[in-house]
Design a protein that fits this description.
single chain, about 375 residues, alpha/beta, Arc Repressor Mutant, subunit A, Rossmann fold, 3 domains, six-stranded mixed β-sheet, elongated, disordered N terminus
């Protein structure tokens, strides 16, 4: 109900009158397009609303104060253009999630985090607007970005699976923005992400503890900042070993395609074969797991397989993949709290807020076989 449609006492108690109710009904009808210019005469309007003419007068005066209508003596009351409305109700805050990943239907069905984020946004009374456009992945999309940002007000932009240059563009545009992931090195924006550096460090430590000294690290072909942070933590652990008797073979794959799987087969069966595989991206981890089995290798007796990411479908694998898992609800809740702080202007200095994933032991990590030790 409009604020002016009900008198408010100092204690916040609302005294709703017939005129208040009539004003709310008229405003709703105008917004729905059920009433158009000019408005019906006062007698007709009063009958349609079931109120007296004095109550209708009071309702129309309220709408005039809001800038919705114009009352002139001797003429029919007219509705003003929307651009001149002075609504007492603030526009609802909108969470616009922007991703250059796949289309919305496929994306949301595969990503529990986005489903939880949507549910938390609705629970907190936020509007939800998903924008999934693969065409925004390249700098040539800047005009489209300007159009999207210019046409939206009272909006916090949530960047998910977006490259560093796009993060940089939003930082320079100075619009309310939250990165659902890791920021690129030269980008300073509020962010909420998993602690991927620590995951990489921990995974390296677990493999070293099990005696693995020949390891294949499978990275996305177009790594995001979080992937690079995980790689950095992974390699940093081994660089501190004295002596550093570990060989890390990095393998970049765009998807579980035949060529990528062929390269993985060579890494597992070639003259300097790896005894462990650490894979980013859950789809590639499952493909690598299946590929190892297809080669007739036993997991983890011959090859250990670790997945950095988790997905409900992985739970169905037997034996279960050794992996890292974080609560998508906890992740989404922290993101919503950060977005609300951005709306209030109380987010403070932009800094990363990290959720630490839990190590799930699974059944695919074992001791390294004594083969192909680095020189």
């Amino acid at each position: 109900m409009p604020r002016s449609a009900a008198a408010t006492s100092p204690l916040g108690f609302r005294r709703t009158t017939v005129a208040d109710q009539a004003a709310a009904a008229l405003q709703s009808a105008i917004e729905r397009g059920e009433l158009t210019n000019p408005l019906p005469g006062e007698l007709t309007l009063a009958r349609r609303l079931g109120v007296s003419r004095p109550s209708l007068h009071g309702a129309l005066e309220q709408l005039e104060r809001l800038g919705l209508v114009e009352i002139r003596v001797g003429r029919r009351t007219r509705i003003l253009a929307r651009g001149r409305w002075r609504s007492s109700r603030p526009a609802r805050q909108t969470l616009a999630i922007l991703s250059v990943g796949p289309d919305e239907a496929q994306f949301m069905s595969q990503t529990p985090l986005i489903l939880h984020l949507h549910a938390e946004a609705v629970r907190r009374g936020l509007e939800w607007e998903p924008i999934f456009e693969t065409g925004l992945a390249v700098p040539a999309a800047v005009p489209r970005l300007r159009q999207l940002v210019t046409n939206r007000r009272n909006t916090c932009w949530v960047l998910y699976s977006c490259p560093g240059w796009l993060q940089r563009w939003f930082a320079e545009a100075r619009v309310p923005t939250l990165v659902l992931g890791s920021c690129a090195r030269d980008v300073t924006l509020p962010s909420v992400d998993l602690d991927f550096w620590s995951v990489g460090w921990h995974a390296a430590g677990m493999l070293a503890r099990h005696g693995h000294r020949a390891i294949t690290l499978v990275l996305p072909a177009a790594p995001l900042p979080g992937d690079l942070a995980c790689r950095e933590g992974f390699l940093d652990y081994f660089s501190r070993l004295r002596p550093p008797h570990v060989r890390v073979n990095e393998l970049a794959v765009a998807a579980p395609a035949p060529r990528a799987l062929a390269r993985l087969r060579y890494a597992l069966t070639g003259p300097k074969r790896s005894t462990a595989v650490f894979v980013m991206r859950e789809a590639v981890a499952v493909s690598a797991y299946v590929q190892v089995l297809a080669l007739g290798l036993a997991v983890p007796r011959d090859v250990s397989v670790l997945s950095r990411d988790n997905h409900p479908l992985i739970h169905a694998a037997l034996p279960q993949l050794t992996r890292y898992s974080a609560s998508p609800l906890k992740h989404a809740t922290l993101a919503i709290r950060t977005a609300l702080a951005i709306f209030r202007g109380s987010a403070g200095r932009p800094r990363p807020r990290l959720v630490t994933p839990q190590f799930v032991v699974g059944s695919t990590l074992g001791a390294a076989p004594m083969v192909n030790l680095p020189e």
